[in-house]
Design brief:
20% strand, alpha/beta, 6-stranded mixed sheet, Nucleotidyltransferase, domain 5
């Protein structure tokens, strides 16, 4: 069974969102950061006796903000603008590291990089998100229907972008 995995990496605590879609279900994971993500992938490898074949069934879509070299918001305040640029740079670096790691483990053909522009507009309205998932026939597991779960919604959108690849 092919599993489509959307990853929305962020360089902040609990900002690393993963959505695994397979068998009609979408499971969500919020990880502390990149090291916990590596541990999560390694648990898959170590816990699967059919690893060489299993890894071929995993398709990853990663929002790689490094593909889009811009700071999205601007400010007239120099300190705020500098902080925003630093934060954008951190996210560009961690998203590129995520892509590089996944390609090393799973191969280039199983990893799709999408810029924020390619990912598309966020679904901020929870009711719209729930309707979208239902229209795809996907049951949401460990999604709490809360407005503050934007990272999970973004990871889900990424996974759905590669479902036909």
């Amino acid at each position: 069974m092919i599993q489509h995995i959307g990853i929305d990496p962020s360089f902040r605590k609990n900002g690393f969102a993963v959505c695994v879609i397979g068998g009609g279900d979408a499971k969500f994971y919020i990880l502390d950061g990149f090291l916990q993500f590596i541990e999560w992938v390694n648990n898959w490898k170590e816990g699967n006796e059919f690893w060489p074949e299993f890894k071929k069934e995993l398709k990853f879509a990663v929002e790689n903000s490094n593909l889009q070299n811009v700071t999205f918001q601007t400010s007239h305040n120099k300190n705020i603008a500098a902080k925003m640029s630093r934060d954008a740079g951190k996210n560009q670096a961690i998203s590129q590291c995520t892509v590089d790691y996944l390609k090393a483990v799973f191969g280039d053909e199983n990893v799709y990089e999408l810029s924020p522009l390619q990912k598309g507009k966020k679904i901020e309205d929870n009711a719209v998100f729930l309707a979208y998932a239902e229209s795809l026939g996907i049951k949401l597991i460990n999604y709490k229907n809360k407005k503050n779960e934007q990272d999970k919604r973004d990871a889900f959108l990424l996974a759905t972008k590669i479902m036909n690849k």
